[in-house]
Write a structure and sequence with these properties.
CATH architecture of the largest domain: 3-Layer(aba) Sandwich
Keywords: Signal
Number of helices: 5
Strand content: over 45%
Shape: elongated
Low-confidence stretches: 1-27
CATH class of the largest domain: Alpha Beta
InterPro entries: FlgT_C_sf
Strand order of the largest sheet: 17-18-19-20-21-22-23-24
Signal peptide: 1-20
Number of domains: 4
Order of helices and strands: HEHHEEEHEEEEEEEEEEEHEEEEEEEEE
CATH superfamily of the largest domain: TolB, N-terminal domain
């Protein structure tokens, strides 16, 4: 009895493998009969032209080119009928024709058409023009442009319509089989690849981000930005990539002092200046999610293809973040704020003099591109008197709340103001803060010299 059971299990296993193999073969079974032709002047390039055309068609999700090479023309209606019949008899559902012609000197044109093999209806037709100096350069341009053009035609390549903070709207919807949870890469045309003589060989793709679809309508989709908040723009291309959002999760690779390396780089759309929040899981919710808390942020200052390096950003719990961030921590790109700040306030000068005065003021602060603890600032005001100031302020122990600095001030004459500044948290901490500055002014109008206090609002952009 035991031997019979083992025999049945063995047969079942092999039959399951056979079914899986047949399904795999069915999925990759050719369904396109491709016929190609080329002007006689460039007949030596026919094999290369057919190869890049086949690869472009194979790049489409539902098509696979057959190795059969029909030696049939399609110039007349009768010739085309014979070609379609040849495709149908070979079991192909689609017949594609592609030709490379040269209408003018140094100008080429690719014409490609897809037909239903059994009905003869035209599925799609495209025509692309190229300028070239050599045949090698022409073939390289066709290889780059044709696949992208076909994917766009068959709605497998979308385009960003608009962006709204951490959301992206692109022009593919239910009609293109888009569903929530699908992941897409976002890219733009990058640098042109040229020879020393200036001939174009196409372009590099410059990936600008990764997004995951959250909502879908018939004509467009809404996606959440996983990577690329600073780099994704309207007009960028959107293309499906395999896997789920969890497969593209970022994490800390390594940490040395306040320097942190992450597992995401230029290929994932990371750019210099991007900011990532670092999270610690507190309690699991399910296999894919958990309650978590943000423990710090990383500001990226060096980007490689597959990883990036950055510095722990200033915060009111900087030392804690520096101590507990470690390898394997989950990271997510977040909106960077606070690098440019607007201030409005009321400055009281000469507080301990016999003639104190007040000035309403406004200013702007710019974070230093080389050191995130330093802000350069410009301000001015008018009231009982007027003044203008330019200077710098430095975070104390990488804090978001405590700074010291110095301003060069014009108030009747040039002077210097040494100050300390304290930001007071509000319910909208990342966007609006109260601030108090206490300074000591010397060298300007005698009545303004001495202790001064500036109270106001700090608005982060």
């Amino acid at each position: 009895m035991r031997a019979v059971v083992l025999l049945l299990l063995t047969q079942l296993m092999f039959s399951s493998l056979a079914v899986a193999q047949s399904q795999s073969q069915l999925q990759s079974q050719p369904n396109v009969l491709l016929a190609t032709r080329i002007d006689r002047a460039a007949v030596a390039q026919h094999a290369a032209f057919r190869q890049v055309t086949s690869e472009a068609i194979n790049g489409l999700q539902q098509y696979q080119v057959s190795p059969i090479r029909p030696n049939l023309d399609w110039s007349s209606a009768a010739d085309r009928e014979a070609l379609l019949a040849s495709g149908a008899s070979a079991g192909m559902s689609v017949v594609a024709t592609a030709e490379l012609i040269f209408p003018r000197r140094r100008t080429a044109q690719v014409n490609i058409t897809f037909f239903n093999a059994r009905g003869g209806d035209t599925i799609a037709s495209r025509s692309l023009d190229f300028r070239y100096n050599t045949y090698d350069g022409l073939i390289a341009q066709i290889e780059y442009e044709l696949e992208r053009d076909l994917k766009r035609q068959f709605r497998q390549l979308g385009q960003v319509v608009s962006t709204d903070g951490g959301r992206v709207f692109f022009d593919l919807g239910h009609s293109a089989n888009i569903e929530p949870g699908q992941v897409f890469r976002v890219y733009q045309r990058g640098a042109e690849v040229t020879t020393s003589s200036g001939e174009s060989y196409g372009y590099l793709d410059d990936q600008t981000g990764v997004i995951v679809v959250t909502e879908v309508t018939n004509i467009y989709a809404i996606a959440e930005v996983m990577l690329g908040r600073r780099s994704i723009r309207s007009g960028h291309w959107v293309e499906r990539i395999p896997g789920t959002a969890a497969d593209y999760r970022g994490e800390v690779l390594s940490k040395l002092d306040n320097q942190v390396a992450i597992n995401l780089g230029a290929r994932s759309g990371v750019s210099e200046g991007a900011e990532f929040a670092v999270y610690k899981d507190l309690k699991p919710i399910n296999d894919n999610d958990s309650f978590r808390v943000e423990v710090g942020r990383i500001r990226i200052n060096e980007v490689r293809d597959s990883y990036s390096r950055g510095t722990i950003a200033r915060s009111n719990h900087y030392e804690l973040a520096n101590g507990i961030i470690q390898e394997g921590d989950v990271i997510e790109e977040v909106r960077r704020s606070g690098s440019v700040q607007l201030t409005v306030g009321r400055l009281s000068t000469g507080i301990i003099s016999d003639a104190p005065s007040s000035v309403y003021n406004a200013g702007i602060r710019f974070e230093s591109p080389g050191n995130m603890d330093i802000f350069y600032r410009l301000s001015g005001g008018y009231g009982d008197s007027y003044y203008a100031a330019v200077g710098a302020m430095v975070a104390i122990n990488h804090s978001e709340s405590f700074f010291y600095g110095i301003d060069a001030v014009w108030n009747e004459s040039w002077g210097t103001n040494l100050f300390m500044s304290v930001n007071v948290p509000t319910p909208f901490q990342r966007y609006v803060q109260l601030f108090t500055e206490v300074g000591y002014l010397i060298g300007t109008d005698a009545d303004a010299n001495g202790l001064n206090i500036n109270l106001g609002l700090n608005l982060s952009l």
